[in-house]
Amino acid sequence: MNVIDVLNKEQLKESVPEFRPGDTVKVYSKVVEGGKERIQMFEGVVTVRKGGGAHESVVVRRVAHGVGVEKTFLLHSPRVDRIELSKRGVVRRSRLYYLSDKVGKAARIKEKKVSKA
Hints:
By secondary structure, this protein is mainly beta. It has one domain (about 15-100): SH3 type barrels, CATH 2.30.30. It is about 10% helix and about 40% strand. The protein contains 1 helix and 5 strands, in the order αβββββ. It has one helix at about 5-10; strands at about 25-35, 35-50, 55-65, 65-75, 80-85. β1 and β2 (about 35-50) form a beta hairpin.
């Protein structure tokens, strides 16, 4: 293992949950306004998860006031405080770009039933 791999391994967070495209997640990110720092929550559907290791990113989409908003987050960034999984979705694609054309009820994703056994 070379020096670059060791440095990248140190950057990884252990607190990243298992989630896939189609899942609904809450991403808590740190926002700096003026001299103060606060945590802001962004909840939406994961459309794309790409990259690997310390460079892994996720695109989260939600509709706010009738306008579709997509944000890209680096999973292992110090700006991302934590990620919580809200719902599991049933999709058959790894990239959900078709959701950007859908509006309202057409943009819904089936929820996966989780058995508590």
